[in-house]
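Students often ask why we bother encoding 3D structure as a string. The short answer is that it lets us treat folding as translation between two languages. Here is a chain of 372 residues written in the first language.
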Amino acid sequence: MILLQSVARKLAALAFLPLLFAAGAAQAHKPSDSYLTLGVSSLQVASRERQVIDGRWDIALRDVDFAIGLDADGDGQLTWDEVRSRHADIAAYAMPRLGLGKGCRLRVTGQEVDRHTDGAYTVLLLQGECEPGAVFSIDYKLFADLDAQHRGMASLTVDGRTQSAVLGGDRTRLAAGAGAGSAWHQASGYLRHGIWHIWTGYDHILFLLSLLLPAVLAAGWRPASADVLRVVTAFTLAHSITLSLAALQVLALPSRLIESAIAASVAIAALNNVWPLVRGKRWLAAFAFGLLHGFGFAGVLGDLGLPQGATALALAAFNIGVELGQLAIVAAFAPLAYAMRKTWVYQQLMVKAGSAGIALLAMVWLVERATA
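And here it is in the second language, the structure alphabet:
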């Protein structure tokens, strides 16, 4: 039994490592997302009603480069000429992976390049139409054969009624339906957006884990639980404040500054576990740096946009989604960490070596983001 427990604890410690490797693959704030916005409206032409489609599809250039190879000279940098010369290839790759309902057609009318919080995106400008009586739907399969973690943030407006969804993985279809534009239906979409974002926001996760790693070392489960609770509560309160202020456009900071500062916060929190300078009151660090992370959440919410008429509800739903996703991470990590807290594996490998690895990764992020 003792041998089995020892093996289980070592395997549990090793389970912490994939997060570092997965995070290393994320060169920016999110691993792989696209943003699809489509509007369907009725238009009367010569006493005949037509369903007209208008929209845009923002796809990260780093993902397109991985799929079809845009970097012609292989220097690791994409230029405007390299992207422009492949516009037709980009459209030819993406459009077959975006299906519409029967009787609906969609075409690319132009391409642009835009910048999101995590880098440059190609923008496909879309127009199309549906036959009378056609039921509009989206069937999303972009990068499905290359990246199972890729998600499409879809927003669909039909005759003024908006609904949103995170598409990819097990959910690839969004159909326009009765009640789809209700405020509560929209809120459920933003709730899922919030959960998905925190689960794929490796910098946020590693910052939180860096603060929680030493929190469970407090003597007894009551002090350890209290320390964990203080850290999580402070982080939640702080990023909720700046997320709300930034999303409502009360306060704004440059995205490069924010993303760089977030990377720096991860490095500082991790290095404090290797060379402790702040042993107590880690909740203060969680609150101070949490204000920066809130701006990062707001950047993603800005990419999604907030629906008119349901702004407050959508913002609250997104924030609640972030908190639910965060609580799920804490609930999975804290009991395991507490059970292992007295072992050499936890104290040396997970706290010391793990924190050193997190700090190194965060410094790579910092250089990438500051010089992008």
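Translate back mentally: The first helix runs from residue 2 to 14. Keep this in mind for the problem set.
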